[in-house]
Amino acid sequence: MKHILDNSSRLIKTFNSITIFEKGKQMGFGMPYNPETTDIYNLSNISSEEIPKLPQSLASWLREQDQESLKKWNVTTFPIEDSQVYSRLALGHYFHAQFDVIIKKLKAEGFRVNALVNCTVTDILLEIKSNTGKVVANNGDYKCSKIVIATGHNFLNTDQPVTVIMEPRGLLKKFYLVNRNSIILRLAF
Ligand SMILES: Cc1cc2nc3c(=O)[nH]c(=O)nc-3n(C[C@H](O)[C@H](O)[C@H](O)COP(=O)(O)OP(=O)(O)OC[C@H]3O[C@@H](n4cnc5c(N)ncnc54)[C@H](O)[C@@H]3O)c2cc1C
Asked: Is the minimum distance from the CB of 121 to ligand 1 under 6 angstroms?
């Protein structure tokens, strides 16, 4: 979207309508930073000064947020620094806000933008004769002249966190780790 915005005067001569498909409930967070897939304890590993240019920098945007929101995203060290990393949640909300800003700017440039949530793409069909494509989604088909695929990561297996069982009698005596293959490690001290 940022690339389209940066080149809007040229690209609007080629297409003026954009449809974005997102299978999740909310648009623009980025999968690892979405409240549906992370919690407040996960840190990101990219600082404000390392993020490619968006309308506003992460640090500048965080400085404008209220204390209550910052607390919810586990942003607890102040002042906010350009070189510091913050929680994935904070980063996700930042990306979400930048997404909204970019969409508004695209609309102001004359693009029609249709951002669809809860909308899973199940197939993409090319129509060679007309040099067009069809996006097949769970709520219908969409004819397109250009298609950009940005599906991100795909986790094939369901997450199965390791279960930790400890018997802390006095000093740690036994320590069992049970993973999905039922391997048990016993560490005696
Ligand atoms: C656990 C984890 C932590 C990470 N942490 C960092 C970090 O701290 N710093 C860093 O720089 N990079 C990090 N990365 C890498 C970085 O997040 C990715 O490179 C980045 O998110 C990729 O962006 P994207 O838009 O291509 O994909 P994504 O952010 O994955 O977005 C793709 C979107 O497409 C949607 N989608 C997928 N399939 C369909 C479909 N069929 N129909 C409709 N919608 C669909 C998904 O729901 C998702 O919202 C991390 C990656 C992972 C997996």
From this structure: yes
Q: Going by DSSP bridges, is the β-strand pair 140-144/132-137 parallel, antiparallel, or unpaired?
A: antiparallel
The 10s digit of each residue's pLDDT in 34-67 is: 999 899 999 999 999 999 999 999 999 999 999 9
pTM of the full structure? 0.85
Angstrom distances, CA of residue 83 to CA of 11, 79, 80:
35, 11, 9
Are 39 and 104 members of one domain? yes
Pocket of ligand 1 contains residue 153 by CB under 6 Å: yes
The finding on whether 30 has its CB within 6 A of some atom of ligand 1 is yes
Determine contact, residues 46/116, Cβ cutoff 8 Å: no
- 121 DSSP β-pair partners: 137
Picking from 118, 144, 166, the residue at the C-terminal end of a domain is 118
The whole domain housing 30 covers 2-118
